[in-house]
């Protein structure tokens, strides 16, 4: 099939009339390479089809929720069976208790669970609980980390008042001295330290947590009576079957979850230890759809697969196959890649590409060869991918490297300059 985008272009034109800028959020084509589709028709397993019928091996996985494959038969059947009986009702169904039992059994630091819809819901509740527990206000966060799209944490300043960002002190991820300085600056008002499971900032090489840094974060919270919060919304169940910081043997007081918890059905979670159970019970947080039963049934089925299958080992192996193959292909064409982060959550960028011109051209060439990559956001390996999918991707990548090589000198990407102006810290 010859790649075309005529239907997508027509939808974009219609959207401009009824949606601000035609699209908002992370899927805005203001941020993506030219020709990237904004609208999609269907998805199955590891694949995504746009409105023009172009099929892609999708390494964005819905920006993370697709863990076991789009339209997974068992997970979706659990969702549909529950929806037929009742989904959003006046109150929750049994599935809420079953899911809380399953989540606390799966995650070693957790004694209780609360459920919501988006990662931002969960991180905001975590902040409220920390402040309620400590009766203090200041939170310490890593510079450049993403914790959601609410005014207190959105990376874009537009529409945000200075008061929305009050009582925040920042540190450099993995830097113990910087963390200690931030805690000192918070003084007697420290309520919590927020930490990402890995450093997964945009445009920045990914980093696994240094065990010394993770342990020191735990110690500082204990010393000051503050709560340690690990924001596992993006990486949860992709690094470990437990909280991601179980890999460095550090238990948080609170952890936030979303993305892959129900394989794409809308639910997120906040898990906590008994130390802050009363504080969790005495905040007010709710939403019209937070008690919906069908996503909870889907999450229960997802947790069974997490516990009973080798999905984690397979996604790691597939990610390593992709990483080594891309390095080999890049070298054949005289390029070097910076591939950082865990293999199953890769960030892939060109070395010596300060304006992202090579990356944008390469990604656009991949798109037209049936591979959906992202030029500056970390990506995801899902359990529905196969070795054949990885090999097809490597063949497409080889062709795309040739496109970049043949293009010669490239102009800077104007979208990158715009994005850097929009985002805090860049």
Automatic annotation (TrEMBL):
GO molecular function list: glutamate-1-semialdehyde 2,1-aminomutase activity; pyridoxal phosphate binding; transaminase activity
InterPro entries, per database record: Aminotrans_3, Aminotrans_3_PPA_site, PyrdxlP-dep_Trfase, PyrdxlP-dep_Trfase_major, PyrdxlP-dep_Trfase_small
Record key words, sorted: Isomerase, Pyridoxal phosphate
Any Pfam family matching the protein: Aminotran_3
Cofactor: pyridoxal 5'-phosphate
Known EC number: 5.4.3.8
Family: Belongs to the class-III pyridoxal-phosphate-dependent aminotransferase family.
Protein name: Glutamate-1-semialdehyde 2,1-aminomutase
